[in-house]
Specification:
Strands 1-2 form a two-stranded parallel sheet. The protein has a single domain (about 55-390), classed as Outer membrane efflux proteins (OEP) (Up-down Bundle), CATH 1.20.1600. It contains twelve helices and two strands, in the order ααβααααααβαααα. The model is unreliable at about 1-40 (pLDDT under 50). By secondary structure, the protein is mostly helical.
């Protein structure tokens, strides 16, 4: 009997242990992602890397949906064009008596029939699909660059707050020291007033930086199609400087001439215009307005090709110069920050030894803060310029192709 009781107790303990283990397993999310999602949902704060921001912006962009719809419509138009070509070829292979017997007036919209027979409408649909696919690629890159630019603006605002907060702390400390010196007669009332003005200015700059951050976040939230009251924390907080390596500008220009959508459009327009002009010249005599207009349109299409090449080369060269300019400005600003840091240090030492005024210290600290913020702006501008040049084979100021 005692053995049975001991056995039952042991079984009960084992069942209890197993139950606790099972409950513990159910209570723990399956992986770290689920834990993070649960914490995020509870706190209401969305952590965003730069890549995640770009992904959100891409998914919410309406232009992408329009391109997808346009591709479907072009596919339908291609099938209609193929059907129209087959029908036109069939009609033109028939004798006039057979066409009359069928009750068809072949002279009605004869130019359209000629265009269809020459595969104009099929080619038109093909070129539209080709351009839409290129526009999709262009749009994706444009979304990436604009989103990263807005992301950088938030980082810049956060950095400005950090720098202005440090400047405010320095101004408060300087005012404290000046007040002590004024109390013991070694500082003037003017120095106290300068110190108070410096504190007030530092507070104004700090508040302005906070406002800039709020506005920068609103712009980013709008781009990502998120609620304006959504709290976000950016996780890619470090802007890096990757020096530009040696560039073969001629090779970049040639690549752009092969891939830019403006040139693709100009070449497609020329091919289509050749077919259209051929049809109009075949139907209308040379003295008629339609014949002359078709010839003029062909000349324009032919002239648009070299102009497109020239515009693309101009874009690439401008993107290159903007990159060089941005990098040079960044390097110069690094030197400015270095000098401003040393000036602030020396003025503080001179002031502590009675060889400089409090105003000298305040000015040096202000110049340092401005240089640090300016350096961060230059770093952001350089990264955007580098993105633009690296993708100048695809996009530029003249890339607004429909």
């Amino acid at each position: 009997m005692k053995r049975k009781i001991s056995f039952l107790l042991a079984m009960a303990l084992m069942l209890g242990t197993l139950t606790n283990v099972a409950l513990a397993e159910d209570a723990v999310p399956a992986d770290t992602d689920e834990i993070n999602e649960a914490v995020e949902e509870e706190s209401g704060v969305l952590e965003l890397s730069m890549d995640e921001a770009v992904k959100l912006a891409t998914e919410s962009d309406r232009e992408m949906w329009k391109i997808d719809d346009g591709i479907k419509q072009a596919q339908d138009a291609r099938r209609s064009g193929k059907s129209a070509k087959d029908q036109a070829e069939m009609l033109m292979d028939l004798s006039l008596d057979a066409i009359s017997a069928m009750g068809i007036d072949i002279t009605n919209n004869y130019v359209d029939k000629l265009l269809a027979k020459n595969d104009y409408y099929t080619k038109l649909a093909d070129t539209q699909m080709e351009q839409l696919e290129k526009n999709r690629e262009l749009l994706l890159k444009g979304i990436e660059i604009s989103t990263k630019s807005l992301y950088y603006n938030v980082l810049l605002a956060e950095k400005s707050i950090e720098i202005n907060e440090a400047k405010l702390n320095k101004a408060n400390e300087q005012l404290r020291v000046v007040n002590l010196k004024f109390d013991n007669g070694s500082a003037t009332k003017a120095e106290v007033l300068n110190g108070e003005m410096a504190v007030q200015q530092a507070k104004t700059d700090f508040d302005s930086a906070m406002d800039d951050l709020n506005m920068a976040k609103l712009d980013l939230l709008n781009k990502l199609d998120l609620p304006f009251d959504q709290e976000i924390v950016l996780t890619d907080t470090e802007l890096t400087y990757v020096p530009t390596s040696e560039i073969d500008l001629d090779a970049v220009i040639e690549k752009a001439k092969e891939e830019r959508p403006e040139i693709l459009k100009a070449e497609n327009d020329l091919e289509l215009q050749e077919i259209e002009t051929h049809a109009y010249k075949a139907y209308y005599t040379s003295n008629l307005r339609q014949h002359k207009a078709a010839v003029e349109k062909l000349k324009d299409a032919e002239l648009n090709i070299p102009q497109a090449y020239k515009d693309v080369e101009l874009d690439v060269r401008k993107a290159y110069l903007n990159l060089i300019k941005a990098e040079r400005s960044l390097v110069n600003m690094d030197k400015t920050v270095e000098l401003a840091t040393e000036a602030a240090r020396i003025n503080k030492l001179l002031y502590d030894n009675g060889m400089a005024t409090s105003l000298d210290v305040i000015d040096a600290d202000t110049n340092l803060a401005q240089a640090e913020i300016g350096r961060y702006k230059m770093l952001s501008a350089y990264n955007i310029s580098k993105l633009m040049f690296d993708n100048s084979n695809l996009m530029g100021s003249s890339s607004s192709v429909q």
